[in-house]
Design goal:
- With 47 residues, the chain is mostly helical.
- Helices cover 70% and strands 0% of the residues.
- The termini are far apart.
């Protein structure tokens, strides 16, 4: 692991949930943005 020293500053029990939570929030924001700002998604899912 190239960035192993980060765990000397941030505990893994705090850092990993924050990191994974951040990834989940960004993913949800991107999906919401795509679904709400395009018109072709509903047509694509509708067939």
């Amino acid at each position: 692991m190239n960035q192993g020293r980060i765990w000397c500053v941030v505990k893994p029990t705090v850092g990993l949930p924050l990191f994974l939570g951040g990834v989940a929030v960004i993913s949800l924001l991107v999906h919401y943005s795509v679904l709400s700002h395009t018109t072709w998604i509903a047509k694509f899912w509708g067939g």
